[in-house]
Amino acid sequence: MEPAPDAALVDLRLRRLYALAWFVASGFIPFFVLWLNGRGFSPTQIGLVLGASALASIAAAPFWSHAADRSAGTTRALQWALMSATVSTLILALTGSVLGATMAAVALLSASTSAVTPLTDALAVQMLGRERLHTYGRYRLWASVGWGVGAIALGALFQWSGLEWMIPVYALGLGACAVYVGRFPKVRPAPAEAASRLGSFGDALTHVPRFPLYLAGLLLFGAAQHAAWDFVPLRIESGGGGPFLVGVAAGVSAFVEIPFMRSSGSLITRFGTRRLFAAGGAVYVAASLGWSLVSAPAAVTAIRIAVGVGFGLVYVSVVVMTGTLVPDRLRNTGQTLAQMCTAALAPILGSVIGGWVYQHVGPSQLFVGSAVGLTAAIAIVWVATRGLASKRPVPDLGAVDPDDNAR
């Protein structure tokens, strides 16, 4: 075990990691659909590629989180995932316009990147401890800074030089992240008896009260979100916009998130994470309804920017609620399951169905359906987290706040 560095130094490294990792991601995620479209893939084929990506994430995520919680520790597992993602990105560059080859390469990439977000969040939860968990948003906001700067700057680069630069830039950035993660303490988890034949995933699903219902709500929420968000770039492009406008939409939206993430600690103390999640979800619903009514690139972009308000509330509340629901021994697995539902399983439902609806039924109908699904998901999560002690930081975050039962 390595000696623990100074707490202030760890906090600084955590902020830098969020900024760097999301700067790198901003050069790939907002432009990936346009990159696929530029290679000649139809909306339905793009949906299939995104679905293959999600399936690979689902298959790989249990192994990463189990390794992090049971053997390797969070830092080592995260570093291995980033190195694997670097190699997978280089393979993707060689696939050309062959659908099968592209799906396979994207699956390899997603199998690696599926660990990055949940393990980074788990690392933050580990570094902060339960007493400071409510301050998570102050660290996560640096991801928004990195994403905002990167999306705008790299969007301008791709507009000027072409999207063929997306892959090498992404590979280089992933490699840099892998090197930087190595600066965090490499702490292996304490030995623990197996609580389920299905490893840490089975442990979380069978021994954490209301967790399966909570995950079901997140799954529906993520599916409805992806059904709308994944095809916003095509909505912009179909109206005459390009990579730069797509980058502006994603980048400025990230800057909008920052004040809400920064104030999330006080908002949690005053309102609780459940109400923060519901408020952020309401913004998502309004955005989907707005996209169903407008098609002009500037209007679509403006709505996408405003969604940053909702994201700033939803993302922080989900990480804190998840960290509150699961015990410390399942820190990585809890975050991974939450991310799987919102960012892996969700694209299978949202992207595949959304691509078909967008092409064969119409964009407006797709966005209305998204709003309906989001509303139902908010209700499910609200019920699943009833009684959750999340209004204020307390030593035992697994305890039930009696005041919440009356809400």
Overall average pLDDT: 82
Main sheet, how many strands, which sense, barrel?
A: none
Structural class estimated from helices and strands: mainly alpha
**Helix proportion:** over 70%
Rg estimate, integer Å: 20 Å
Strand content: under 5%
H-E string: HHHHHHHHHHHHHHHHHH
Distance between the termini: 45 Å
Shape: globular
Note poorly predicted spans: 390-407
Q: Work out the number of β strands.
A: 0
Number of helices: 18
Could you characterize what this model shows?
The protein is mainly alpha-helical and 407 residues long. Helices cover 76% and strands 0% of the residues. It contains 18 helices and no strands. The chain has helices at residues 7-26, 32-38, 43-70, 74-92, 99-113, 116-128, 136-161, 166-181, 199-207, 211-229, 232-238, 243-262, 264-271, 273-293, 297-325, 331-343, 345-360, 363-384. Helix 1 (7-26) packs antiparallel against helix 8 and helix 4 packs antiparallel against helix 8. The longest helix is centred in the C-terminal third of the chain and has 29 residues, at 297-325. The protein is globular. The termini are far apart. Mean pLDDT is 82; it is low at 390-407.
